[in-house]
Each structure stands twice: as structure tokens, then as C-alpha cells.
Amino acid sequence: PYPPVIGSTTLSTASMSTDAPETVITTAGALEGRELEWAINTPELTAEHAAINSNIIRTRFPPEPNGYLHFGHAQSMNMNFALSFEKLGVPMENRRTIFRFDDTNPDAESPEYIDSMKRDLEWMGWQPEKTTYSSDNFQTLYDLAVKLIKKGLAYVCDMTKAEMEAQRELAKKRCAARAVGADPDVEAPIPSADILPGRNRDTSVERNLKLFEEMKLGLHDEGTLTLRLKMDFDSPNPNMYDLVAYRIRYTPHPHAGHGWCIYPNYDFTHGICDSLEHIDYSICTLEFETRREPYFWILWALDMYRPKVYEMSRLNVEYTVLSKRRLLKLVNAKYVRGWSDPRMPTISGLRRRGYNKEIINNFCNEVGATRSAKVVQMAKLFHVARLTLADTTRRAMAALKPIKVVITNFDEEAGENGMTFEVQNSPTDASLGSHNVTLTGTIYIDSEDFKMEDDPNFYRLTPNKPVGVKYHGGNLICDEIVKDGDKIKMLKCHLDSSEGRPKPKSYITWVPSDGIKCEVRIYDHLFTQPEPSDRWEEELNPESEVIHSNAIVDPSVLELVDKKDVDEWKSNQALQFERLGYFVVDTDTTFDSATREGKLVFNRTVSLKEDKTVKKVSSHEEEQNRKRVEQQRAIAAARDIMMTIDPKDLFKLAPEYKDKYSKFDDTGLPTHFADGTELTKSAKKKLEKERAKHAKKFAKGKK
């Protein structure tokens, strides 16, 4: 995406690029990407780093504590603690990973997030070499900023945000002109040196040291001054346009406390911390690829060791969002129960839903780490979960929507010894032991296992068709249906264990009369669309959580579900409810197994099999789909209309601009609003951009 030489042209009004190497070098190999000559270490730096690390290869996992860890962080942990070393062929004894909190933004960070990240990392099973904080280096970072000022490579700037944006846009236009061989002074002339290169850029070292010290002492208001790096306004990479290294914030820091009122930004901090911690490979996601220039420029300017940088694609998973902003909105708007809601893609949410660390790490291994953008199917996670849980999860019987069944010939069938059966906790692993279940005169079956009318495709209980009873082996025959209005109150049935009984086509599970009442939460996708759009809030699935508040589970699980064993920071008891799926005890549980008092709550982790049936669309989803189709049609119709409008008539005829403007110049560009107010230069420039975009589409459509 870049020309072979960066910064080869200087501006006509002043020198705006620093005297640094500029040739781009392309390399290939394990964990290598686009390199700059700035990234090449001197022999002295290379020797010093080798002496410190010796045979050790070091990576780092550096989340910002501004939310809870999620799927993307799980992939990053997997990459930094394991997969990267495997790709590089590093022996186990030579692997080191630092867990670093990239905590440079006190406005968004909190002790809650710091604590949750520590706990999640530990729960995931990763063992860092040590845990560090970028904020622990605040004094060192400040001293290095002073060093850059003294070298004439940093300056204190009083430009407003709007002025910086105008400066940035002008630099981009001039770069675009040079890229096509045009004269930037003609295509994007500099109106004033105050804007480009900026009125503060060439100020004295003494002035900048004084103001930076005043910033540190709290003598200036927020937003009035920043420290900027004197980089390269000629670069095709806007990240080199004198980025802000420090800003004023009168916010206490969650880790460093009240000692600072100026904070370094991410670009200035993370490369320096990598170097200070003797990192060999700095691994990030692809959106940071254009940050290579500032990353290496800063270390070059400070004559510090430059680690290798590798970018991998961000992990995107169907039917969810990973944006911190959107996740925070889900929590704050109470669309979910909190950061640990089982529908959330956070590590806490995944754990609460019943995904253990083996499932998550195996999933990350399955997905891998590449530079190819991809959206991973949620079905892959479900598949990994089933494989992991199948042989390790204890069985139990449950009914989500129970129907009471009275066995009229129970005493005759049970005899003096009753009917208690030993059941293997796992049919495939005898080492998991067994438990007993007792058939009682009154049992509960799930409403899904009974139909009022016979259906040739329904193999469970109906009034005219017997069904097998799991573990008992005999048949259950429905003799009478007792109703309360339209609702089934109970079934009166009898058992048939005679030798000549008909062979049933299926066996149903049941729960004895002393079963434990519980609440069962069945979870579906959080969104109705595989890839939520900008209208993501409208795409939330209203049926993402279905609660069965009157469910019942067999009493064999009694000692496994006590509240004393439930903890939000560990994997809680997992069970397979036969024929229903894999479930886990939820943290809302207050159940006391000794007294049988309190609430027992289960979450379904995943169904036993992939659901390949066509899902019935709810009325809400139907309405949302109808609106979406109408919107798409409207957009297509508007696009067709736009393709008939000549660019010079865009602001006169296009529906979105019609009657908005009253006067136009010779090219058709608006000069006055409908009320006679004159447009500002900034407004005209925006309209010029819109017309240029339309002109390209119009020309393409005419071909």
C-alpha cells in the first residue's frame, strides 16, 4: 500500500520531514511483515538485546483495561503464549510472555477491568513471565519525551482539535496530489504556515521544555496543550503527521493514582514499553499495520531496540460484536445482564455459559492466526464444545416444561424392592463412576415428549402409542389426560413390562417425584444477523434468552449444585441433561443442598447436536426482515436515481439535496443555503468531496 520511498518530497514552505532512513524493505518468513529501514537495529543494539535475552524469545499480551477480555483477546493470548512460539520453533524452556496492562487512558480504565483481566488470564491457564503496567513506566516515558524535545524531535502544540484536523486533511490532499504527479501547491495550497507545518513546530527547545514541564505541573487546562512528535507531513501514512504523544487529563489513574495529570498516548507508549521489556516479537492485529511507521520512528529517534512486529487478522465471530464501544452499550443499555452475561463474547460470559478453558483454547487453535480477514462460524465453537464435553460431562435427567405423570400400576410393578437403577455418569468412561435414579409412582416428563394426537413422525408418548421408559426398559402407556381448561394438568398412565409388549420406537427420560425444581435458561445467538451491521441494535435477537422457570432435574445432582461450590471466576459444575444438551450451574444460584432451599439455575452451553431444522421465524424477526428488505429496495431505488444525475446537477436534483440550497457557482457547487446563509469554506469542501465521489460512480455507470 506504500510507494517504495517514504518522505522523498519536502514542502515548499518549510522542511517538515525528519532526517530518518526511508526505504521500505519487504521480508517474508515466520512472524514477519512489512519492514522499514527504521526497524533495523544497529549492531550495538542487537548485541545488547542478545546479551540480555540470550536464548529466550519473548512476546507480550498487552490489553487495555477498558473492558472485559473477549474472544479476540483469547486469540491474542493463544498467539502470544503458544502459537507464535510454535510458528517460530521455539523450545518450551525458551518461551517467555509478559502480561502487560496498556493503561495509558485513565478516563476509560478501572480497577474492575484490571481485576477481571487478571482473573481471566489465570483461569485460561496461561502463566506469564511477569505482570507489568505501562503506567509503571510513566517517569521513564516522560524522561524520553524530554529527550526528544532536546533533540528537536518533539514540541508543545497549542493547536485546537479542529485545527489539527484541518492540518491533517491538507497534508493528505498534498500527498494525494504528489502520488499522481500533480503539484501540491496548486492542488492543495498551504493557506498559512500556522496550519501546515503549524505555528508551534519550529519553536525553540527551551520554550518546549518549559511548557512541557508546566503541563506536568498542572498549570494548563485540559485540551489547551499537547506534546507532538516532529515526524513527517510528506508521508503517505497519516499516522506520521506529528502524532500527539502527551495530552493533559485531570483524571486519577486506576493504578498510578494521583501523581500525573499528563498521560502518554498508545502510539508513543507501547513501542517504548516493548523495548524496555526486551520483547522480541510485538504481535497485534492488522488495523495496526499502518502504525509501523510511528512505532519504529519513535524507537529509531530514541536509539532504542526495535522488536519485530507482526500483524494478524482480527478474530470475528458470527452473531456477535467485539467492539468495546458496542459491548459497553450492550451492558449500559441493559440489553444483557452484564459483562458476564452468557450471550456476551467476553471470557466471563463464555465461562458463565459453560465453555471451559479447554474449549476456548481448542477453538483458538482450530481458528489459528493468519493475515487473512475472516468471520468464524459460531457452529465451529459449538462443535469444539460438544467434542470437549461429550466424554467428560456427567449425565442427568431433566424436564424443561414438565408434565406430571401418575403411574396407576406402580405398586404392582415396583414390588417390595422398588425400582432403583444404577446409571453410569458417562456411557463411554467408566472411571467417571455412577449414580442411582429411582422410578417413583409420580414422575415428570418433558412436554416435548407428549402429543395429544398421534403423528406417524412422532415417536414419543401419545394416547394411542406407548413409549419406552429410560433405564426401566418397559413401556409407558397413556390411559387418561387430565386437564385444567386447555392446559394439561397430568397424565394417568400405566407401565407395561410384559414379555410380549410392543417394541417402542424410542425411550424418553423422566424425573422422579423428588426431583429438584430449577430455572433453566436456553441461549441462542445474541443477534439475528451473522454479521451485525451499523444498525446492530435493531438486529438484537429478542429470543436470545428463553427462561424455563418451572424446570425440574433428577435428585442425583443434589450434592453437585450447592451454592457454596458456585464461583463466577471458575468453571462451575457442568452436566449433560440427557437428550437436551450440555448445561452448567449459573452464578445466580442460591440453592442449599442440605435444606433444598434457594434458587437453582442452569444455563445451556450447547445442544447435543447441531440444529439443522428450519427455525420458525418469530413475528418480531419477520417484521425486522420485512423492514430490512424495504430498506434495501429503497436504497437500490435511490442509487438508480442517482446514476441518472449528472455531477454538475447533483446538488440541484438529488433527493437528499433538493431544495436545500438557493445559489450555486458556475460548476453547480452550492454557495448559499435555502435561507440565504452563505456556506463556509469547510462546508463547500465537504460538498466537493461528495461530488467527486458521485462523479466516479457516474462515470463508472456510463461505461
Brief summary:
By secondary structure, the protein is of the alpha/beta class. The strands form 9 sheets. A 7-stranded mixed sheet has the order 14-27-28-29-25-26-15.
Keywords:
703 residues; 30% helix; 18 helices
Task: Report on this structure.
By secondary structure, the chain is an alpha/beta fold. It is 30% helix and 21% strand. The protein contains 18 helices and 31 strands. The strands form 9 sheets. Strands 14-27-28-29-25-26-15 form a 7-stranded mixed beta sheet. Strands 23-20-21-22-16-19-24 form a 7-stranded mixed beta sheet, with no helix packed on it. Strand 27 and strand 28 (581-585) form a beta hairpin. Helix 9 crosses helix 10 (292-302). The protein is globular, with a radius of gyration of 33 Å.
Rg over C-alpha atoms, rounded to the nearest angstrom: 33 Å
What would you call the quaternary organization? Answer: single chain
How would you characterize the largest beta sheet? 7 strands, mixed
The proportion of residues in beta strands is: 15-25%
Tally of individual helices: 18
What gross morphology would you assign?
globular
Number of strands: 31
Q: Largest beta sheet: what is the strand line-up?
A: 14-27-28-29-25-26-15
Helix content: 25-40%
- Structural class based on helices, strands and sheet pairing: alpha/beta
Low-confidence stretches: 1-17, 19-28
Mean pLDDT: 91
What is the terminal-to-terminal distance?
27 Å
